Amino acid sequence: MTGKDRDFGLGTSLALTAGSALLWGVAHLAAHRHRTGLLLMSAHVLLLAFILTMLTAFSTRLLSLAVQPRWITVLALALAALAVAWTAVIIWSYVLVRPTAAGALGRALTTGLTIALCALILAPTAYAARLAYLSRDMVHHLFAANTGPVMSEDPWNGAQRVNFLLVGADSAPNRPGVRTDSMTVASVDTATGATTLFGLPRNLEDVPMPNGPARSRFPSGFTGDGPTTPGLLNEVFQYAEDHPETVPGVARGKRGPALLKETVGGILGIPVSYYAMIDMKGFAEIIDAMGGVRVTVDEPIVYGKYREGLLPAGTRKLNGEEALWYGRSRTDSDDYVRMGRQKCLLNAVAKQADPVTVINSFEGLATATKRAIATDVPQDLLPALVELSQKVKDTRIRSLSFVPPLINTAAPDWRLIRQKVSQVLSERPTLTSPSTPQAARSTTSPAQSPEKPIALDAACR
To answer: pTM higher than 0.85 for the full model?
Structure first.
């Protein structure tokens, strides 16, 4: 059949063209192109079913593909091909059902509708391609220099737990170098995603150094450059960068993370495999990009160099600058209160960074992330890390900070720290309601029954 078997009125033509954009083949069936119409309709239904299945049943797998540059390119090309095919069906449908005697106004209406429908298909696809490009660029930027071992079926190589050092760095024009003022190790069970956070205060003194040149230089603990002032844990990173002989064979920019990971791992008695460091000012940009973050301020917080700001108590949405001061301010408080607020802030950001927020703010988030975050996580590990993060979201995160009165930061009991870490990691957390006090959320195994459960940090509200 070479031509249309019937003429269509203006209203029918408009309806069939719009209908073909929603379900391929509608116009073809109306024009008696039954075989073609059924083929198009079947292809469209199968395509939609495939997309819905991927977005629901295989969402984690899809996320893991979205952090692999090669697959990001494949997904972008697939979206482009889908958009071209969809617009082709719309135009083809319009040609089949356009009215022959509608006059100039009718032709303008049907042509305008067709162009509008094509734009509705092409615009989101172009936006998705843009997001794919930004995602690919961000992955390359953050992980380009990282290399990892050849991936096996088990990306964690049989390890029951993997430990990440999360660092909040603070630098300022009047204070050269980088100070790691927030240091937390996230210990994650690779099978269940159960996570425990171990917080270390920045002002730990006489920190034992790892074996090698650093231990040889500081056999009795880290003292830094000053002979009269104690060296603090938050100075180790910059010391390694300024003294390459303490970490021989490691390039600049990697010396600080390497020595800090080993040092922190030695303090806690667990191996620290990877680190991620976020600049605090960059963190404020990330929060602004996602439209702010809602937190509960327990007590009014004075902030600003000259006490010019105040965060009132209550639940409120903070912009980047306010969130930065929420996490940094020590006025009328201390380092340890600040550590607790920082964990609450990170928890709030993680919970509120839902997919809709991320997509709507993706370009700003990508730009801020590239400026603010540094990490040594291998690019090949990203798919496994995405799957692990999905498990973490389904568990209750526990937290333990080594602060007074548990630990005297001027004369820390390193053996006690390692003992507490070992005890917490050997406990099995019980499933409890959100109202259950955090200190009661852990139980000891039978072998440890003589010991009291460790009081963990209070949950953030």
So the answer is: no
